[in-house]
Design goal:
The chain has about 260 residues and is an all-alpha fold. The chain is built from 11 helices and no strands.
Length: about 260
Amino acid sequence: MRRPVALLLGLSLWEGASRSGWVHPSLVPPPTTVARVLAELVVGGQIWPHLRVTVAEALGGLGLGIALGAVLGLIAALLRPVAEVLEPAMALLNAVPRVILAPLFVIWLGIGVASKVALSFLLVMVMVFFAVYTGIREVDPRLVERVRTLGGGPSHLVREVYVPSVTAWFLSTLKVAVGFAFTGAVVGEFVAASRGVGYILSFAQSTYNAPLVVALILLVVAIILALFALFERLERIWLRWKPEYRPTPPRALPSGVDKAKGE
């Protein structure tokens, strides 16, 4: 109940500040103006072709980044010589603001979908690599030795020890990676594109159309929050074996209370 009230209060203050002139409406448009622009985009249908392109680019980069990042993280965690090569390279990529590579990807791959998928892929892949790599390296060595003592081979270790250990790390990172995937797609479109949400954002920025900019930002945020909720639901399903994800059983009433109810 507190969140809707806080949201309504914030929107009311925002509307009042814009209408009263405390902030310039052309710079900080009121929520009603943003809602009208957003409704025109959605109902009129102009946004859908651009939105489909951005979502496809983001999900393409997300899928590729998850696949390669997980594989490289697993190999690096299990093979120390590989880790000695990959870990410094991934640390260097993680230290560099990877969005600055967007112009380079445009030069290499053009202004089409490929350059945006590549940027989203790079943003996601590094995150997933460290999630899988760290999750496996954090496994208790005594647990690994016990499995080996009982005759378990590499396949048993991966299936019974490493995968359950890394799942929580992986799913927590996955929710953050969704935002990074859309960041890569939109930033890539903002740098150079002929379609997509970032392309419209670039047009709105060049024409100083603040209501359109805010409306597009809210639209992207809504999509990310929907995907975030989906992954959170999957996290609860996949990790239901952990105590913190089990539903809390109803507390039993004292016997005296039950007796009083019966009377």
